[in-house]
Amino acid sequence: MSLKVYNTLTKRKEDFVPQEPGKVRFYACGPTVYDYFHIGNARPFVVFDVFRRFLMYRGYQVIYAVNITDVDDKIIKKANNEGVSIREVTQRYARAYLEDIYKLRILPPDVNPRATAHIDEMIELIRKLFENGYAYEVDGDVYYDVGRFKDYGKLSGKKIDELQSGARIEVDERKHNPLDFALWKSARPDEPWWESPWGNGRPGWHIECSTMSMKYLGSTLDIHAGGEDLIFPHHENEIAQSEAATGKPFARYWMHNGFLQIRGEKMSKSLGNFLTAREVVKRHKPEAVRLFFLQKHYRSPINYSEEILSETENALMRLKHVLENIERTLEGKKLSEIEEKDLTGPEKQRWESLQKNRLRFIQEMEDDFNTAGAVGQLFEMAKIANRILEEEELSENNQKILKFIHRTFHEFDSFLSLFGAEEETGVETGTFNQLVNILVQIRNDLRAKKEWALADEIRNKLMESGILIEDRKDGTSWKPVKKNKNN
Questions:
Q1: What does pTM read for this prediction?
Q2: Which domain holds residue 475?
Q3: Taking the CA of residue 268 as centre, how many other CA atoms within 13 Å lie in the half-sphere pointing to its CB?
Q4: Mean pLDDT within 255-277
Q5: CA nearest to 485, candidates 464, 467, 470
Q6: Domains: count for the chain
Q7: Are residues 46 and 120 in the same domain?
Q8: Residue 68 near residue 124, CB atoms below 8 Å
Q9: 247, 253, 286, 326: which one has the fewest Cβ atoms less than 10 Å from its Cβ?
């Protein structure tokens, strides 16, 4: 079965065919760092982490980029309310974001660009839009002329002549059209600014994602993902400005996850009905939070409650106990692979059922990443394992079947990340590498912003810990080295 993906752009499931065989350019909208992200925000972080890993499991080379928005109206408002600098706000919550995705067992993206490190590229993209006739300037503000883009609304299904200027669209008589959106905002008192051909100012939100995604992934992405609340206007505007600049399709497949709800309402900061991810992880195992999201199809809404999450945690523990019991039962035993010709009766039936479960698991994942259906197959396999473990004496073939179940669980856990070692057992090699990569990315962002002192401090601290940072033309790399005994 070929991998199928529901494409928001075409409103149907399609065979997934990347533009370059074997390589996937995957971009997901990341956080705006003005607060701790809530458990609803965690859903796209988790599910798209699993999708990325499954693509890798399928043999694709995946380049995965997730941005960090560190200049935005909400950030400025937060800094002014607290009486602190914008930099203090963004550093605090960017660090918290990296800490929280680590706790949720999310692999760091290959590229984690920050908006403020890409202002020059944003200005160049706006220049291109001027050249192509899609941008206009009024008193230092630059707007995108929505009426010039004939395909506006193709993602959301909205039509320009039916859209009304509403609460989410700022009324400004200087605009050609109420739907025209800001590409560049002129400098205002107590706001950050950068020099530009249109005067001092800062970029609009939408231009940030277009710029960063195309810089690292090219003019056409294979997958662009995010929450369904971003379909309009954010992703619609990204398409308009990106395709107007390049003349090429911006993304081949658009993926959007459903809302997380509390008592039937979308969880959001504006409604005040939210819990931060770090609050939830303090009360529940991070793996249980992952399973909570994966037990529902990513495009469906999901209801949150403490009771549901507790039930999910109990379900996870049942699966873990199966694995632990298998490990105890098979400890020290060397077992060869199963020979199907030797199986008869219940053993043969169990083996055939497990083969169907395993195949069905893969089929569910290949059918628009139906993690709910896939996880259901794990519970079916666990039932078979429990029936075998209840037997007083285990035949060699039943032991081999248990070994197969154990191996299959861990094979699938390469992308589910539900059954790994507990945090207190120590930092594994893969996790250590992830942490170093995070620090290297932070240092690169600091260097891009010419904050040399802090960047050098990170390099020196890593060197003291036995990590050598090497800056080359093709990027930054690191390697472990022997620590100086005199230190």
A1: 0.85
A2: 427-480
A3: 8
A4: 83
A5: 464
A6: 3
A7: yes
A8: no
A9: 247
Q: Are residues 256 and 315 in the same domain?
A: no
Measure the CA angle with vertex 92, ends 88 and 93; round to 5°. Answer: 120
Q: Are residues 357 and 406 in the same domain?
A: yes
Place of tokens 């030797």: 342
Sort 398 into a burial class: Cβ within 10 Å, 0-12 / 13-18 / 19+.
Answer: buried
Q: Which is more confidently placed, 450 or 7? A: 7
Amino acid 482: pLDDT: 54
Are residue 223 and residue 346 in the same domain, yes or no?
no
* 20/67 same-domain check: yes
Query: What would the pLDDT profile of 6-61 be if each residue is shown by its tens digit?
Result: 999 999 999 999 999 999 999 999 999 999 999 999 999 999 999 999 999 999 99
| Token pair 């996870």 in the structure block, residue | 316
* Judgement on whether residues 416 and 366 belong to the same structural domain of the protein: yes
**What is the mean predicted confidence (pLDDT) over 152-163?**
88
- If asked whether residues 219 and 124 sit together in one domain, one would say yes
Instruction: Quote the CA–CA distance of 55 and 60 in Å, as a whole number.
Output: 6
R_g over Cα of the chain:
25
The label of the residue with tokens 């009771």 reads 307
Confidence grade of residue 485 (pLDDT, cut at 50, 70, 90): very low
The pairing of beta strand 12-15 with beta strand 4-7: antiparallel
Give the integer Cα–Cα distance in Å for 253 and 55. 14
CATH number for the domain harbouring residue 349: 1.20.120.640
228/257 Cα distance (integer angstroms) = 6
Q: Average pLDDT over the chain, rounded to whole?
A: 91
Cβ pair 37, 279 in contact under 8 A: no
Q: Are residues 371 and 440 in the same domain?
A: no
Q: Which residue has the tokens 């033309």?
A: 473
| Residue 48 host element (H or E) | helix 39-57
Higher-confidence residue: 140 or 454? Answer: 140
Instruction: Give the pLDDT of residue 456.
Output: 87
